[in-house]
Amino acid sequence: MHLTETRSKTLPHGAGPVARRRGGPLLLGLFGLAVLLVAAIGLSLAVGSGQVPLGDVLSGLFHPDRTQRAQLIVREVRIPRTAAGVLAGVALGLAGTVMQGVARNPLADPGLLGVNAGASVFVVFAISVLTLTEPRQYIWFGFLGACLAAVLVYGIGSLGREGATPVKLALSGAAVAAALGALTSAMLLTDSRTFDQFRFWQVGSLSGRESGVLWQALPFIAVGCVLALALGPQLNTLALGDDTARGLGQRIALARLGAAACVVLLCGAATVVAGPIAFVGLAVPHAARLITGPDYRWILPYSALLAPAALLLADVIGRLIARPGEVQVGVMTAALGATPFILLVRRRNVVDL
Fold first, then answer.
1. Which of 57, 72, 129, 218 has the smallest number of CB atoms closer than 10 Å to its CB?
2. Distinct helix (H) and strand (E) counts, the chain
3. Which of 16, 25, 96 is nearest to 300 (CA)?
4. 3-state class of 123 per DSSP?
5. Which of 230, 229, 258 has its CA nearest to residue 102?
6. What is the pLDDT of residues 313-353, one digit of tens each?
7. Distance in angstroms (rounded) separating the CA atoms of residues 29 and 224
8. What CATH number does domain 85-99+108-351 carry, 1.10.1740.110, 3.40.50.720, 1.10.3470.10, 1.10.10.10?
9. What Å distances lie between residue 165 and 147, 271, 337, CA to CA?
10. Domain coordinates of the chain in residue numbers?
């Protein structure tokens, strides 16, 4: 009896009547975020560089006529772009939340495991050495590089008696990212053609994404989402520290291995879809935590809805501020996310996980 009482007071689940009282408002919050995401999807489909009336947007969605230029823009440009934003946003939001939970580091993001650096070096290799020019060709090298980099970082961080501790993972991730970044720069400096092609992918963008690439990335994101949402209770226990988690019966190594697999799937697929995009995986979990508190069973679904909505809205703003051109979404997320994130991390209760 005493152990049960102690556990209910210690775990960040918010067990008991308090959790039940908070469940109703949090469910309403999820519904509100779902409405926000639908609105962001609508804006992404309706707003762009081309002049497309709202009627053609609706017709292009439900009754497309490919002989109409406006409807063709909707089908061939805006729908794949919006789908890419939703897929990449969900993946980045969940990956960032899982990384912050398993590393117990409020500044952890998908770049912590060297995922972006690994993807970049393999994409450069595919363009420069293998002379691949189509995104659907070299994009899988980006996914392979992301996976191998994450495995390398986890392998280095697992060396030693204590295994893959949060500090060792962060240090090994920084070291691997620095080494891979240097290798990428060395290849780019010796090949101007590769640099011209790579720089558009490196900045992070939702434009020009083929539906075939999205369909290929979808299964990886779906599996990663299911795994991430299932990790909520384990992340709650890991937040208490390794010793307490072991005392509560948590299998630390297995939980971290599952989290690593989840991050590899989500980060690799997000990088495949949109390139390396900053701030989404870093800032969104903090914003979700402001609403939900420390319970990862709620933070994860909140992040899964908030991240794609934020990414699509940033992309829409990027299309509007530089007409008839546009600012790529990777630039917009960094520009728009910096100030709110600084305000978030200045609040002590947000930084403490």
1. 129
2. 17, 0
3. 96
4. helix
5. 258
6. 998 898 888 777 788 888 888 887 777 667 766 665 544 44
7. 23
8. 1.10.3470.10
9. 20, 25, 29
10. 85-99+108-351
